Amino acid sequence: MSDAPKAVAATREGAAPAACRECAKPPAAGHTRCQRHLDLHRRRTRRKRSRERKQAFPAEQRSRLLELIANGIPLPQACETVGVAMSRVHALGRLDAQWAEHLDEALTAGRDPEITHGTSYAYKELRCRCPECRRAKYIERGPRRRPDTARSVPAPRLPDAGSHKATRPHRMTARDLDGLERLWRDGTPVDDIAEALGISQSSVYSNVKKLGLPARERPAQNRGAGGLGAEGDRMLTEMWTAGVPTTEIAQKLGMHPVTVRTHASRLDLPSSKERAKNRPRLAEEDEERVRRAGAARRRLAKIVALLEAGATIKAALNQLNLNPNCLATLRRTVPEAERQIREAYQAGAAVRAAHRPKLAATGARDGEEELRAAQLVVAAVASGQSLSAACRAAGATGSWVNARYHRHEAFRQALCAAAALHPGLDLHGWLKEHGRGGPVSKPRPPG
Asked: For 337-390, how does the pLDDT look when each residue is reduced to its tens digit (9 = 90+)?
C-alpha cells in the first residue's frame, strides 16, 4: 500500500496521518495534506464552487432579475419570479464586483420616487433596498454583534517541515481593492468588509488609507432646527396646510410622526387639534356625531323626567346607573342641557318639599331617643363603668357613640369630663377602636 492510501485509511480510523495523502511530507495540523497541497486543494474547491454558483444563476436569469428590479418590482418578489434565492444574489455580489454594481444600479432605478431615501426608516419600514437606504441602515445599526462573544480563532498556518520562513500575509489583488472600495463607499461595516475579503480590520483601514478613500462621517441622528432644509420645510408646510394625515407626511419625509409634529411646531404651523377642526368632515363622521347627539338627548330626557318627579341630581344619576361625569358630556353635546336640568330641578322642588315634614317628624322622635341614650352613656361612664358597659346600658353601639362624639360638642365635653374622673379609662383608644374613618380627637379634661 502506498503512502497516500495509508494516510486516508489512518484518517478514517481516527488516528493522525503520518504523511500527506498526496506526497511524503508531514501533514498540516488537523489535516491530511501538507500545507502546499492543502492550499492547492482549497483553490480548486473555490474555483469549483464558483463555477457551480454561476451555473445555478446563469446570465439569462441575471438579466431577467435586473430588468424586473429596474421596473420597480421589489427584490424579494423579483427573486421569486425568476426562481432564485436572495442569498444567492447577495453572495454573487460579494464575489463579483461588476454584478454588485449592476444590481445597485437596478435597485436605484426601480426605487420609489415618492419617499425620501438614505434613511433607516425607509429601509426598515418602507422596505427599500437601494444603496443609500442600505448605507443608512448599516450606519445606524453599527458593527454586527455575533451571538457568541468569543469568536473561534482559526488555527495558525504552519510552515512546511524544514522551512524556517514565516507565512506571508494575504496580498490584496486589484479585484480585492475594487471590492473594498465599493463596500467602503456603500457604508458596509468594517468587520463585514474584513470577513468578506479574508483580512483583518486593521488591514481594511490601511488599504483604505492607501487608496485615498474619504473618511466616514456618522450622520446626525437628531434633526434639530432646520434639519429638514428649505425644501423639506416647504414640503412639510404644503402637506400640513392641505390637511394630509401625519402618518402620510412621515412616510413622504422618511421620519417618525412625532418628529413631523415637532417640525410643524418649529415652523409655527397650526396644531393638530386646530387642523382637525378646520379639515372637511366626512359623511361617516357626520353620521356618528348625529348618532351621539341623539343618544345624549334621550339620556337627558330621562334625567329631566326624574328631576321633575322630585328626585335629586345624585339620586337620578344613581337610578339610571350613570357616572357623574355624564353631566359634563351632556352639556358639551346638547347646548340646552344646562337650562333643561335647572328648570326640571325647580319644577321638582314642590315634590321634594312635601316629603320634608315626614322626615322632620321622624328626626324629632329620633332626636329625643338619641339625647336620652347620650345622657345614659355619660352617667354610666361617670359612675365608673367601662365605655362598652355604658353602651350596653344605654342600648347604643360603639359606632354611634363615636359618631355623636365627633358631631356634638356638648356630648363630647360631657363624655370627656366623665372619663377624666377615672384615670384608668382610655377614652381615646376606645374611640379609635370603634371608629369608622376620620381622626379621633383627644379627650379634653376640664380645667
From this structure: 888 888 888 888 887 777 655 444 444 444 677 787 888 888 888 888 888 888
Cα-based distances in Å from 445 to 126, 178, 404, 409: 81, 101, 18, 14
Last residue of a domain, one of 183, 211, 239: 211
Q: What are the cell numbers at 283?
A: 359623511
Name which of 100, 125, 102, 101 is nearest 112 in CA terms.
Answer: 125
Report the amino acid identity of residue 359: L
Burial of 266 by CB count in 10 Å (0-12 exposed, 13-18 middle, 19+ buried)? middle
Indicate the number of domains in the chain. Answer: 5
Does 446 fall in a domain? no
CATH of the domain at 195: 1.10.10
Claim: this prediction has a pTM higher than 0.90: no
| Residue 415, domain member (yes or no) | yes
User: 46 φ, ψ to 5°?
Assistant: -65, -45
Question: Phi then psi for 121, rounded to 5 degrees?
Answer: -65, -40
Q: How many CB atoms lie within 10 A of CB 265?
A: 11
